[in-house]
Amino acid sequence: MTGFIPRDRRWHPPALTPDYKTSVKRSPSFAPLSFPTSLPEETGPMFRDDMLGPNDSDLIHNFAKAGESAVGPRIIVHGRVIDEFGRPVPNTLVEVWQANAGGRYRHKKESYLAPLDPNFGGCGRVVTDDHGYYEFRTIQPGPYPWPNTMNDWRPAHIHFSVFGHSFAQRLITQMYFEGDPLIWKCPIVDTIPTREGIESLVAALDMSRAIPMDSLAYKFDIVLRGRRQTHFENRPEGL
Amino acid sequence: MVQKLESYRESPSQTAGPYVHIGCTPNFSGITGVYPEDLGTTMITGDVSGQRITIKGTVYDGAGTALRDALIEVWQADANSKFAGKGGDTGFTGWGRSAGDMATGEFTFETVKPGRVAWPDGRLQAPHVTFWIVARGINLGLHTRMYFADEAPANAEDPILTRLEHSQRIPTLLAQSEADGTYRFDIHLQGAQETIFFDI
Ligand SMILES: [Fe+2]
Fold first, then answer.
1. I need a labelling partner for A170 at 20 to 30 A (CA). Which of A8, A96, A155, B200 fits?
2. Which of A74, A137, A157, A225 does the annotation list as catalytic?
3. Global pTM?
């Protein structure tokens, strides 16, 4: 049978995670209906890198005034988008968003007292190359408090939206930073059932890719669902 | 000991959070000058065949409150049952993205009514639009399908609709046509009218 490997729902966060309070009224209570993928799930929108502007993958400069740049530790984030079989996922759109170095988002609903950075917007995007690699430049975001219990803080993180080549692969996740003690205190991180799963979202400090006197680097690989490929089609009797 | 399998675990999902619009629809969220326009705003980019339709709806939580911080994406075949990039209408992207109305959360898609697409065994599926919903409080993006209430004969032979255990829940997947030609498809995350979500 072709089609995608089913999602392992014991590996992903469950819908209802009461310690992350907002999930309580936003989680379906019926079990989702499982069925094999067909064309509508096995196709998806494709984006070309000629759609991108020259600064789309440079969050240090893409919102900054001419000659200025965002405040904060300069970092390169790089990695590969692969599938569950280890095959690269080329030419797929990766969108990112994040808080500024002080942990503040540029958003009307944001209430944290940390100041906005006039030179930082907080969004970027990149299309993976023929081998599934992507790279962008930004500043390391700060941790921030959020309304849940009275003293919950998010570890520093970057949000990722990835398309893959099929709607079945569509994924939103978050990247964390090696060594951040807040990772192990966050109710949103803790929605992931296993320590191994959490660690798979922690980017490694990558000194081999740091640019001396300029930027540190972190490596973050993303794994999307894999599509089975076999010569041995599973057909009902008589067909 | 046995040989090691060359397989990887999918990256675990994390909620899109309250600021998903910064990343996915920055112009909508007031961050202008970075991208010329928000992706997915326009599905019809040229000449298209078929019936032009508008889809509107609202996502409600289990307390009946409309979500105003969700991101909704749709993916569908064109009127000739073909997908973009696979022989579909060149004037049609098949993919839309909506942040919803700033005040009400209502999403809108200007699109065409899709044709029928084959199921793996060759039977035809009823016309439908695939939906994907993410928001703060949703830990893993929710997939569902919007079918059309006015396609009763096709719905009656759809391979998915016909095998639902709780057939009384089928109306949660049906968009109703309104007087002006708009199709309304409200999504309920929880509660008595909870939408059927799919594990695909
Ligand atoms: Fe965040």
1. A155
2. A157
3. 0.96
